[in-house]
Every structure is written in C-alpha cells, then in structure tokens.
Write a structure and sequence with these properties.
125 residues, mainly alpha, Globin-like, heme binding, Globin/Proto
Length: 125
C-alpha cells in the first residue's frame, strides 16, 4: 500500500474497483442472509456499487454525478439491516478483496474504512 495514493489508486483505479465489485456480488448472492435482500438482476446494483466505491475510495465522483448525494443510509432504510447483516456484508467484501489479490495491509485498511458505513446502515436490533 502506498500511503501517498488514494485507496482508489491503491486498488488499481477503475479496473481494480470493477474487479472488486465483480468478485463481491457473487459472494453476496450466495450468502443465505444478505443475498435475499438483493434483486435477481444484480447488474444495476453492481454498476451503482462500482460508481459508489470509486467515489468513496477517492476516485471520480461517478455516483454523485449520476444520482446526486449518495445518502446511503436513507437508500438502505427499506431493508431490515442488523449487525449480523453488516458482518456478512463485510465478510463478502473481505473474501472479494482476497480473491482479487489485495495485499493484507491494504485489505485491512479497506475493510476498516467500509466498516463505518456498514455499521451506519444497521437499522434493526
């Protein structure tokens, strides 16, 4: 991990984020707890996640340019999300990061960065 670069650049820019999203969603779809929260046609979700993660990790503001402010908590309020859901989501992300070959230091940093939003979406005990 190069601390002088953004997370986006450390992950390989657009290509790295795309690879991460493509490794992540098959894991999500197979997950017994969080998979059912996602639509069968996962492609639009994957595209929004690509745009969001690009922006969230310091790349181009693709999500905001297309959809306005992310307001991610509000966008997730329709779904019952528990701490266990957040754990499963983070577990899928950890597996995807490992699958695409992200080195451990960067992987840990990314997961720590994502754990805040994952916990922020929790809306059900």
């Amino acid at each position: 991990m190069d601390p002088s670069l953004s997370i986006y650049d450390n992950l390989g820019g657009a290509e790295g984020i795309r690879s991460l999203v493509e490794a992540f969603y098959p894991r999500v779809q197979k997950n017994h707890l969080i998979g059912p929260l996602f639509p069968e046609d996962i492609m639009p979700v994957m595209e929004k996640q690509y745009m969001f993660l690009s922006q969230f990790f310091g790349g181009p503001a693709l999500f905001s340019e297309a959809y306005g402010h992310p307001m991610m908590r509000a966008r997730h309020l329709n779904f019952p999300i528990t701490n266990r859901h957040a754990d499963e989501w983070l577990g899928c992300m950890a597996g995807a990061l490992e699958e695409i070959g992200v080195e451990e230091t960067l992987r840990d940093f990314v997961l720590k960065r994502l754990s805040g939003p994952a916990r922020h979406f929790v809306n059900t005990p």
